[in-house]
Design goal:
The complex is a heterodimer. By secondary structure, chain A is of the alpha+beta class. Chain A has 2 domains: 6-93; 98-218, Alpha-Beta Plaits. Chain A is built from 3 helices and 6 strands. Chain A has helices at 11-92, 98-107, 157-168; strands spanning 114-124, 144-154, 174-186, 189-201, 207-209, 216-218. In chain A, strands 1-2-4-3 form a 4-stranded antiparallel β-sheet, covered by helices on one side. Chain A is rod-shaped and about 165 Å long. The termini of chain A are far apart. Chain B is of the alpha+beta class. Chain B contains 4 helices and 5 strands; from the N terminus they run αααβββαββ. In chain B, β2 (111-114) and β3 (120-132) form a beta hairpin. The chains are: A alpha+beta, B alpha+beta. At the A-B interface, α1, α2 and β1 of A face α1, α2, α4 and β4 of B.
């Protein structure tokens, strides 16, 4: 025999029960979400705290490295400053003493030769600049050189040639050449008057080498 | 509103709380934690390089000492201003009538010397005219080159003295050009052009 369910609960009571169930669902979902948020927040806060502790320890150790880095940077700047001073000094000062050049010249003179006149001029070489290169005039320092003219007399042309050959073998002296050689009477004797000239590049570094001859030069 | 819709709304409310709480509370801490960890990794990388950095600092300190030694030992002083009077005093030779017959100094006007990109200097030309023996002239040039302050020998002109009467001690007419150097004055601060 089949029985039919008879709902005797009043409608108002049923509606109130259903509303309570709905409210419970809202509260349940929201509470679950809040719990999840709190869990995540706790997890992240613990992680952040741990990361900050780790950072503090690493920072203390790295401070030493950072101070060394700053020290290295200061040292590099100081070295660059001194290097700039040395570079400027090298551009201002001659690479060797003029007395050493005079000594080289005098010591290489063959016997019987006499110098009458010596003219040395150290300065900036005049260079012809193109319109394009004139824009860089301030930045590029003009090349420096020493020009020399030596006038004297010798017994014969062989002595003069020997002198020129000897001077050509000395590194700082460039373009050693005879300007002229002519016969001249000196105190009743016939001699050969000559004039020679040479150049020295003052932008190249040289060091003085003391050998059997009192002073010579070589390029390092 | 049926039951299903209420269920969806409750789920949406919970999800909303999750999103808002995550965005306002969790996410800022999470990004801060990531940044701190990234920085910690960088710091640890630096710590690894501690011994290398220590060696680098030692190397740079040695290099600086070396270049300073070069400056102190090998280079001469460039004074703040060229001191011509002191140089003249140091290069002045007594006219003894035997090795030095006379000596004259003539100072020029100050000029600026360019040294390219590395700067420049000021210089006062100083010309020394002498009637003296070769040794006396060379001694003067050597004295100029051995001064503590930087003095350049810019020219040397030697000629036999035709009026010389003593062939045993030949006299020369010498003109030695010197340049007494000094530092360039510091450039005045540039004022900005007003519009």
């Amino acid at each position: 025999m089949r029985q039919h369910a008879i709902d005797l609960l009043p409608h108002a009571v049923r509606a109130r029960g259903q509303a309570g169930v709905r409210m419970g669902r809202y509260i349940g979902f929201t509470s679950a979400a809040v719990v999840l948020v709190i869990l995540a927040l706790t997890h992240v806060s613990v992680g952040l705290k741990s990361a900050e502790t780790e950072w503090t320890v690493a920072r203390e150790k790295a401070d030493n490295v950072i101070s060394m880095e700053m020290n290295a940077r200061d040292l590099s700047e100081a070295i660059a400053e001194v290097d700039a001073y040395i570079a400027r000094y090298d551009r201002l000062a001659h690479p060797f003493d003029i007395t050493h050049l005079l000594a080289t010249l005098i010591n290489q003179m063959p016997e019987g030769m006499t110098l009458e006149k010596l003219d040395l001029n150290a300065g900036v070489r005049r260079v012809v600049r193109t319109p394009r290169s004139q824009g860089n005039r301030d930045q590029q320092a003009a090349p420096r050189e020493l020009t020399a003219e030596v006038t004297g007399f010798a017994p014969d042309d062989q002595t003069i040639a020997s002198f020129i050959s000897t001077l050509r073998s000395h590194p700082p002296l460039e373009e050693v050449g005879l300007d002229f050689s002519r016969t001249r009477s000196v105190r009743g004797c016939t001699a050969r008057e000559f004039r020679l000239s040479f150049r020295v590049n003052l932008d190249l570094p040289f060091e003085v080498v003391v050998s059997t001859a009192p002073s010579e030069y070589q390029q390092p | 509103m049926n039951e299903r819709r209420h269920l969806l709304l409750a789920g949406a409310a919970g999800f909303g709380v999750l999103i808002v709480g995550g965005a306002l509370l969790v996410w800022p801490r999470y990004t801060a934690m990531r940044e701190v960890r990234a920085e910690t990794v960088q710091l640890k990388e630096k710590i690894k390089d501690l011994s290398g950095m220590s060696k680098e600092v030692e190397r740079l300190a040695r290099e600086l000492q070396d270049v300073r030694t070069v400056v102190e030992v090998d280079l001469k002083n460039i004074p703040e201003a060229p001191d011509v009077a002191r140089i003249m005093h140091k290069l002045s030779l007594p006219a003894d009538g035997r090795t030095v017959l006379n000596q004259e100094f003539a100072a020029g006007t100050m000029v600026e010397i360019s040294a390219g990109e590395s700067g420049g200097a000021r210089a006062i030309p100083l010309t020394v005219d002498m009637r003296a023996t070769f040794d006396a002239v060379v001694a003067l040039i050597r004295a100029a080159e051995q001064l503590d302050d930087l003095v350049r020998v810019s020219s040397v002109r030697l000629a036999a003295d035709r009026a010389d009467v003593d062939p045993e001690v030949p006299m020369l007419l010498a003109t030695v050009g010197l340049e007494v150097l000094g530092e360039l004055p510091p450039a005045p601060p540039q004022e900005e052009a007003s519009p």
